[in-house]
Amino acid sequence: QVQLVESGGGLVQAGGSLRLSCAASGRTFSNYAMGWFRQAPGKEREFVGAISRRGGYIYYADSVKGRFAISRDNAKNTVYLQMSSLKPEDTAVYYCAADARSGNGVSSLLYEYDYWGQGTQVTVSS
After folding, report:
1. What is the edge-to-edge ordering of all strands in the sheet holding 68-73?
2. What is the CA radius of gyration of the chain?
3. Rounded to 5 degrees, what are φ and ψ at 40?
4. Which of 14, 38, 58, 62 lies deepest, with the highest CB count within 10 Å?
């Protein structure tokens, strides 16, 4: 079992920045690729980005490429999502998730993630 707890969400104006954190406990953090997803009201949960076990490979959704950055600190069992140039359409609940199946790569597919946090709300005002 891996427990994931997101933090850092909040209300920000368009063009602003936020950094989300996801703290993991339980099994060895470096055994998991980590992903970020988001879900806006009335919409399906969608992939934001993911980082491989050692951080050597990072993949982003086109909608956030160039604005968001994912990093991880395996010594602190934490993955981060730095969000910049935020837009109102980035408003959503953001979730981190752990993936034990992708080896040294990453996945954008929800069903390949084994563990999920409870989410943190990000609201971007116009």
Report:
1. 2-7, 18-26, 78-83, 68-73
2. 13
3. -90, 160
4. 38
Copy the structure tokens of residue 91. 């408003």
For 3-38, what is each residue's pLDDT tens digit? 999 999 999 999 999 999 999 998 899 999 999 999
Take residue 83 and report the two structure tokens written for it: 């969000």
DSSP 71-125: EEETTTTEEEEEE-S--GGG-EEEEEEEESSSTTS----GGG--EE---EEEEEE
Partner residues linked to 24 by β-bridges: 4
CA distance 34 to 36: 7
What is the secondary structure of 25-71 as a DSSP string? EES-GGGSEEEEEEE-TTS--EEEEEE-TTSS-EEE-TTTTTTEEEE
- Give the pLDDT score at 88: 97
Structure tokens given for 8: 């850092």
Half-sphere exposure of 81 (CA within 13 A, CB side): 32
C-alpha span between 115 and 16 (Å, rounded): 30
